Amino acid sequence: MVIPEISPEYVTGKIIDFIEKEVKKSGCTGVVIGLSGGLDSTVVAYLCSRLDDLDVLGISLPVISSNIDAKKIARDIDIRFKEIVLHEILDSISSSIPKDVWRQDKLAKGNLVARTRMSLLYYHSNINNMLVMGTGNKSEWYIGYFTKYGDGAADIRPIGDLYKTQVRQLARYLEVPENIIKKEPTAGLWSGQTDKNEIGMDYNTLDKIIYGVEEGRSINDIAISSDINVDLVKKVLKMHKNTVHKRNMPPICRL
């Protein structure tokens, strides 16, 4: 099974037009991007750098040390840049949490990092009259691989209908540096964290499974046609089912 290739020129034009219309409709004057130095946020930044008459602000939010890649990206595409190192903010929050809990619960701490980042992005969007750009792709959205109200929060999601493999294709068309394209994907929530380890498979495998599901193929057909272990197919379907709440608005008790 092969993921369909996109027409990069068409997709670029479509996304830029989409962003410009949404910003104009909102009455804002620009966009703010959480610039991690990873593939997805870099592609969104490259696209936003092509916007006409709109202010673009890239904000790097590393936990401990400065993000060299994010700085270089902002400089290369000539957008405004700001960096906020989070360790002092996180230290302040952690002082109200029992130390043994703070040290042991890696997932909760990682989610706190993601939500702190988004709080700061929305603060800067408020004071600059900007929209917050989502940088998540279709692959991550399908399996719920994002933090609810963290990196999953945004005003618009420009690349939300592109598989990760298609984002890479678009990146090459936009002339994103090869070291960014080949960089090991990570949310940067803790030391040594990688997308592949968290998801349990690489994005090429994940994308083939999701594409097969969207084509209406059976579990066995997806596994056989893509030479993928059937257990991985079942795992992706389970992740999708278990994360429905992340993709939907909170339910309301109707009276």
From TrEMBL:
Broad class of enzyme this protein falls into: ligase
Binding of Mg(2+), residues: D40, E140
Catalyzed reactions per annotation: deamido-NAD(+) + NH4(+) + ATP = AMP + diphosphate + NAD(+) + H(+)
Record domain NAD/GMP synthase: where: 14-250
Binding site residues for ATP: G34, L35, S36, G37, G38, L39, D40, S41, T135, K164, T186
GO biological process, one term: NAD+ biosynthetic process
GO CC terms, sorted: cytoplasm
Binding residues annotated for deamido-NAD(+), in chain numbering: R115, K148, D155, H245, K246
Record has Protease as a keyword: no
GO molecular function, one term: glutaminase activity
Keywords for the protein's UniProt record, in alphabetical order: ATP-binding, Ligase, Magnesium, Metal-binding, NAD, Nucleotide-binding
Gene3D superfamilies, per database record: HUPs
EC nos: 6.3.1.5
Family of this protein: Belongs to the NAD synthetase family.
Subunit structure: Homodimer.
Main function: Catalyzes the ATP-dependent amidation of deamido-NAD to form NAD. Uses ammonia as a nitrogen source.
Name of the protein described by the UniProt record: NH(3)-dependent NAD(+) synthetase
Organism: Methanonatronarchaeum thermophilum
Gene: nadE
